[in-house]
Design brief:
There is one protein chain. By secondary structure, the protein is mainly α. Helices cover 90% and strands 0% of the residues. It has one helix and no strands. It has one helix at residues 2-98.
């Protein structure tokens, strides 16, 4: 009795469930095969965006490095010239104070 029950379940699985499982497997395989080009395009777009971001980061870092080195060189060159610049500023201020101001003409 139990053997017939097991045999019936086996036949049900063999005749009904196995073809359904095979059809589901084939449909799933076809679905994945149809989506492969879109996956490839997605990977290529992601790679392009990633490389563009990497290039932007490298450009910003290089620009920052150039700017920092230019500021450092400028500060190193201007530091010894600071007393001369202050003296020139004092002389310019004195000459500016000595220069006569134009007097506005009275309105007619």
């Amino acid at each position: 009795m139990i053997g017939m029950l097991v045999g019936g379940m086996f036949l049900f699985g063999l005749v009904i469930l196995l073809p359904l499982l095979l059809v589901g497997l084939i449909l799933r395989l076809l679905f994945h095969i149809l989506l492969i080009p879109f996956k490839i395009v997605g990977v290529l777009i992601g790679l392009g965006v990633g490389l563009a971001g990497l290039a932007a980061v490298v450009a910003v870092l290089a620009g920052g490095l150039v700017l920092a080195s230019a500021l450092l060189i400028g500060a190193a060159l201007l530091l010894p010239l600071t007393p001369l610049l202050l003296g020139a500023l004092v002389v310019w201020g004195v000459f500016r104070l000595m220069k006569p101001r134009p007097v506005a003409a009275p309105p007619a």
